[in-house]
Design brief:
The complex is a heterodimer of chains A (178) and B (161). Chain A is an alpha/beta fold. Chain A contains 6 helices and 4 strands; from the N terminus they run H-H-E-H-E-H-E-H-E-H. Chain A has a 4-stranded parallel β-sheet. The relative contact order of chain A is 0.17. Chain B is built from 3 helices and 7 strands, in the order αββαββββαβ. Helices cover 19% and strands 29% of the residues of chain B. The mean pLDDT of chain B is 93. With 161 residues, chain B is an alpha/beta fold. Classes of the chains: A alpha/beta (178), B alpha/beta (161). The interface between A and B is medium-sized, with 15 and 14 residues. The complex binds iron/sulfur cluster.
């Protein structure tokens, strides 16, 4: 007497103790609630980031509280604050040191687009040197919009296919100098 | 206090080109050749004792003044002893943008002068380590000069945007 598998809902035929899914969906579900952050903080947005990460707003509610100050252990690169051209090779080096899968969170107007600094010193958006997964505008962004960004990133991660990885090194790799 | 600039002029009549006072801010313009000796006297002379160099910066008067006094190096000094301050200015020409370093008078001038070199290209003669402090070594030119092109970009990596 074999199990009768219905076309439409095979799970129902297996009873309550078995859940069918795809490997990608299970891995994505696990990843989205266990981000380790690498906070790359350079400027005033950092003050707001402290508020986001601190107990009042509490990033930990979304499973993304643990800052790792080694890129080797981090999943998300939080780029927070103005990135100058002098800083750019360091940022790219940190990105390249992170293990895949990894995501980049552009926090604030400066990181998204250069913000109000359209001048000789400032990178006009880090997407000119790195792949960026989520852009959060604001100068600085309020904690609520950061959470919105994080939740959107979680949705994105949950839907990802494993074929996306590895993504490879940043398109612009610093010369050996730094 | 109001006569501070006048007293400074009396102290070094040859070094001082002019004095002025506005809203309580005493200001002295000096010849750049005399700057080092002048500053040393401001620091040491009884009645002056400017022992704190608060700020050093540069102004670029391109298009407002002739090339002979295009730049002006500006010092802000404060005396903790007498609780008085003065602003000292020294015009510097476009052809020879150089002035004596005051690091040997106030050690704190070190990084200020490096910043002034970095941003305006003023050479401080006698500075122990005159190299860029904010920008990277690969940068060409001095970005706060008024003739630095507004849209000129020199990224270390990535596109020039
Ligand atoms: S976006 Fe605004 S608050 Fe954030 S680093 Fe830039 S200037 Fe500062």
């Amino acid at each position: 007497m074999g199990v009768e598998v219905e076309d439409r809902n095979p799970e129902a035929a297996l009873g309550d103790s078995v859940i069918l899914s795809t490997v990608d969906a299970v891995i994505g579900w696990g990843r989205k609630y266990s981000f380790f952050l690498y906070p790359f903080i350079t400027a005033c947005c950092g003050m707001e980031f402290m508020s986001v990460a601190g107990p009042r707003y509490d990033l930990d509610r979304f499973g993304a509280a643990l800052p790792r100050f080694s890129p080797r252990q981090a999943d998300i690169l939080f780029v927070v604050g103005t990135i100058s051209h002098k800083q750019a090779p360091i940022l790219v080096k940190v990105y390249n040191q992170m293990a895949e899968p990894k995501w980049v969170f552009a926090y604030g107007a400066c990181v998204c687009s250069g913000g109000m600094y359209n001048n000789y010193s400032t990178v006009q958006g880090i997407d000119t040197i790195l792949p960026v997964d989520i852009y959060v505008p604001g100068c600085p962004p309020r904690p609520e919009i950061v959470f919105d960004g994080l939740l959107k990133l979680q949705e994105l991660v949950a839907k990802e296919r494993s074929s996306k990885w590895p993504r490879g090194a940043a398109p612009y790799v610093p010369k050996a100098k730094i | 206090m109001a006569d501070l600039a006048e007293r400074i002029k009396k102290m070094s009549p040859d070094a001082v080109a002019s004095v002025s006072s506005s809203l309580g801010q005493e200001c002295v313009v000096v010849h750049k050749e005399a700057i080092l000796e002048f500053m040393r006297r401001l620091r040491d002379e009884e009645g002056m004792l400017f022992n704190f160099m608060m700020d050093l910066t540069v102004v670029d008067y391109l298009g407002k003044r002739d090339a002979g006094s295009r730049f002006e190096v500006v010092y802000h000094l404060y005396s903790l002893k007498h609780n008085h301050r003065v602003r000292v200015k020294a015009p510097v020409s476009q052809a020879d943008p150089a002035i004596d370093s005051v690091v040997q008078v106030w050690r704190g001038a070190d990084w200020f002068e490096r910043e002034a070199w970095d941003m305006y290209g003023i050479t401080f003669k006698g500075h122990p380590n005159l190299k860029r402090i904010l920008l990277y070594e690969e940068f060409v030119g001095h970005p706060l000069r008024k003739d630095y092109p507004l849209r000129k970009r020199q990224p270390l990596l990535g596109p020039e945007n």
